[in-house]
Amino acid sequence: MQYDVIVVGSGPGGYVAAIRCAQLGLKTAIVEKYNTLGGTCLNVGCIPSKALLDSSEHYHNAAHAFEAHGIKLQKLGIDFGRMIKRKQEVVDANTSGITYLMKKNKIDVHQGVGSFKDKSTIVVTKGDSTATEITGKNVIIATGSKPSSLPFLPIDKKRIITSTEALTLTEVPKHLILIGGGVIGLELGSVYARLGAKVSVIEFMDGIIPTMDKALGRELQKVLKKLGMDFYLNHKVTGASVKGKEVTVTFDNAKGEKQELKGDYCMVAVGRVAYTDGLSLDKIGITVEERGRKIPVDEHLETSVKGVYAIGDVIKGAMLAHKAEDEGTFVAEIIAGQKPHINYNLIPGVVYTWPEVAAVGFTEEQLKEKGTKYKVGSFPFKASGRARASGDLDGFVKVLADASTDEILGVHMIGPRAADMIAEAVIAMEFRASAEDVTRASHAHPTYTEAMREACLAATENRAIHI
Ligand code: FAD
Ligand code: NAD
């Protein structure tokens, strides 16, 4: 079995790379060790977490928002088993959709663990240890990542869990202790807080979502506190133990004083680490970086071995599905001799809490550090007619524009449907729009997107209309 391209790993990086290769006329194979395609994103990441976020939001609204809209409910309850089953149905529909796309694009799927025999031969080993060899002129490594763990805090997958187990619990926790106030912690923490769990977040840094613009973390923390979440910022976890159904987490505050929390589940969400187990990279002379175990690549995403590329979570950069997809397309086009381009500064970051958080470009902190002179335009959702109608008054849009040229340098928003709204900012910035350019484009009324225009108006000449 000889191919132009073999892709190892079928997550959003791998399957998009395979489809783009096939579109470009390259004979393509994809190797996946699991029985279903789609990788972390479709099976235990983006899709199942969003399914549970949507279900829990419906419940939360029914319990807390319906009355204000004049809707009365006789009896409200949670069938958690059904909620988890629905999540799985959503996952199954998505993963079988990828199987269909492989067939449609005539991509051969080889199920089993892929490992290098040499730079163009991949041995595919199935669960029953039978092995097949396939060869490819090019190989794309898209093996993704797995949850990081803390050496002093062993994960038993029952009471001390990662996001993977948090997506398949059989009960709503009474008290969920989260280690890490990043994206996974806050999204899955929101799910269980909405369903009635007490949720405590222990975060090492002095704010939640610490890599995003600080104003976003502050606003999100305010909203999540209203949801009943407790935050222990600047705290360092030192250990956890399980006794029956009880987990005890020990941690130190900033002054070094020892504290502890007891709960029924503890979820560790302190980042993810690149996954290269089983690839036998040593056979082709690739050494992973010590920190994060990522595969080093050049500007064409080619490894130190000619014809072997790597994309997605397994290489440098943000661990995001759309970044992996963009790199999948990029590498396929490089192999086909084209000259694609990715603007890494314009890959948006989103947190699917409610309100949603979304950002693209430079943060204020980064602009200060770079010494760039910038202007700020902000618009609060409480001044938006659309947000008043829906009752989503928390949050704002903040636009950062170059002080002299007015070019938009960063957009940071927290508010209703911010995840969808950020696309306008990405497009504007891809075309190097000024804040004024956005103000000159018509925005339908009433929509949440008017907040983006108003923030741009505020940045242009402080001339927002509705504040
Ligand atoms: P992966 O999706 O991890 O896929 C890698 C695949 O390779 C896996 O299927 C694996 O089984 C396979 N594999 C590994 N080694 C081998 C081998 N030797 N042989 C054969 N197969 C192999 N990102 C977003 O952008 N938006 C979100 O909303 C979002 N939500 C998330 C929620 C959670 C709970 C988690 C955990 C992650 C989330 N992410 C989200 C991150 C996103 O899932 C990853 O960035 C994305 O899946 C990375 O894609 P990838 O193709 O690089 O790798
Ligand atoms: P993260 O990097 O977003 O957050 C980890 C958090 O844990 C950070 O705030 C960090 O300061 C904190 N932390 C680290 N060590 C700690 C310790 N010892 N004690 C207390 N806190 C500690 O990582 P994550 O939430 O695990 O998510 C992993 C990856 O998955 C991220 O790169 C993210 O991009 C991706 N993801 C994306 C989405 C999305 O796009 N909506 C959703 C989920 C996951």
- Tell me, rounded to a whole number, the average pLDDT: 97
The stretches of 5 or more residues where confidence is low (pLDDT under 50) are none
In CATH, the topology of the largest domain is named: FAD/NAD(P)-binding domain
The tally of strands reads: 22
Principal-axis shape equals globular
End-to-end Cα distance, whole Å, is 65 Å
Structural class: alpha/beta
The amount of beta strand, in percent, is 25-35%
* Major sheet summary line: 7 strands, mixed
The named CATH superfamily of the largest domain: FAD/NAD(P)-binding domain
Radius of gyration: 23 Å
Domain module count: 3
Helix content: 25-40%
Tally the helices: what do you get?
13
Heteromolecules bound:
flavin-adenine dinucleotide, nicotinamide-adenine-dinucleotide
Annotated CATH architecture of the largest domain = 3-Layer(bba) Sandwich
- The CATH class label of the largest domain is Alpha Beta
Can you put this structure into words, describing what you see?
With 467 residues, the chain is α/β, with parallel strands linked by helices. It has three domains: 2-145 and 273-344, FAD/NAD(P)-binding domain, CATH 3.50.50.60; 160-270, FAD/NAD(P)-binding domain (3-Layer(bba) Sandwich); 355-459, FAD/NAD-linked reductase, C-terminal dimerisation domain (Enolase-like, domain 1, 2-Layer Sandwich), CATH 3.30.390. The protein is 32% helix and 25% strand. The protein contains 13 helices and 22 strands. The protein starts with a strand and ends in a 6-residue tail after the last helix. Bound molecules: flavin-adenine dinucleotide and nicotinamide-adenine-dinucleotide. Nicotinamide-adenine-dinucleotide binds at residues 150, 179-185, 187, 202-205, 210, 237, 269-272, 318-320, 350-352.
